[in-house]
């Protein structure tokens, strides 16, 4: 089954659909979301992408990133992907809320391009035993934003390109 992304203009208005891989080959602007899950200790959940991912395998990134389907709301899409990737039941109240959105473009060595209007959501989960999909996720870990920033400064090659961009936007947004 082919996966499609929703193409958008700079105002986040739908302008069509395109097969996901084609959109990433052509670098066409499309709608995406990124989730930051936090726990009561103030840590955020990171996931390490599976070895089988088509780009950026085995790199650390935020809790979940993906694309909503046509007609699917952001929170609904985020809950769906959190279930598919991390095994979090859709009926678990994560208190997901949209924080902000921005557009970015990142090119990869394999010729793929992420050009996304990214909606960043935050949520909360505590003491959960994740049963993640090994085709999607290699590992998970909790880290404070301060520890994370220091580690990215020291070892940027361990993290996805988009996550470094998103994290910077996230920190800037909440320090205003």
Keywords:
176 residues; four-stranded mixed beta sheet; three-stranded antiparallel beta sheet; 4 helices; 9 strands
Summed up, the domain count is 1
Give the CA-based shape: globular
CATH class: Alpha Beta
The percentage helix is: 25-40%
Strand count, sense and closure of the main sheet?
4 strands, mixed
List the helices and strands and how they pair.
Elements: E1 4-8, E2 14-19, H1 20-26, E3 30-38, E4 43-49, E5 60-61, E6 64-66, H2 74-86, E7 97-107, E8 113-124, E9 137-144, H3 145-154, H4 161-174
Parallel strand pairs: 3-8
Antiparallel strand pairs: 1-2, 3-6, 4-5, 4-9, 7-8
Please give a structural write-up:
By secondary structure, the chain is an alpha+beta fold. It has one domain: Nucleoside Triphosphate Pyrophosphohydrolase, CATH 3.90.79. Helices cover 25% and strands 36% of the residues. It has helices spanning 20-26, 74-86, 145-154, 161-174, and strands at residues 4-8, 14-19, 30-38, 43-49, 60-61, 64-66, 97-107, 113-124, 137-144. The strands form 3 sheets. A 4-stranded mixed beta sheet has the order 6-3-8-7, with helices on both faces. Strands 5-4-9 form a 3-stranded antiparallel beta sheet. It starts with a strand and ends with a helix.
């Amino acid at each position: 089954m082919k996966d499609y992304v929703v193409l958008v203009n700079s105002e986040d208005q739908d302008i069509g659909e395109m097969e996901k891989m084609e959109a990433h080959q052509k670098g066409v602007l499309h709608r995406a979301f990124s989730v930051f899950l936090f726990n009561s200790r103030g840590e955020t959940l990171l996931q390490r992408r599976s070895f089988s991912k088509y780009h950026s395998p085995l790199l650390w990134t935020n809790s979940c990133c993906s694309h909503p389907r046509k007609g699917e709301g952001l929170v609904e899409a985020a809950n769906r992907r959190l279930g598919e990737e991390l095994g979090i039941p859709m009926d678990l109240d994560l208190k997901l809320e949209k924080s902000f959105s921005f557009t970015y473009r990142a090119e990869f060595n394999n010729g793929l391009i992420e050009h996304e209007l990214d909606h960043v959501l935050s949520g909360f989960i505590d003491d959960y035993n994740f049963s993640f999909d090994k085709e999607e996720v290699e590992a998970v870990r909790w880290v404070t934003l301060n520890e994370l920033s220091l580690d990215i400064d020291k070892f940027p090659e361990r993290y996805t390109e988009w996550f470094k961009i998103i994290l910077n936007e996230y920190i800037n947004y909440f320090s205003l």
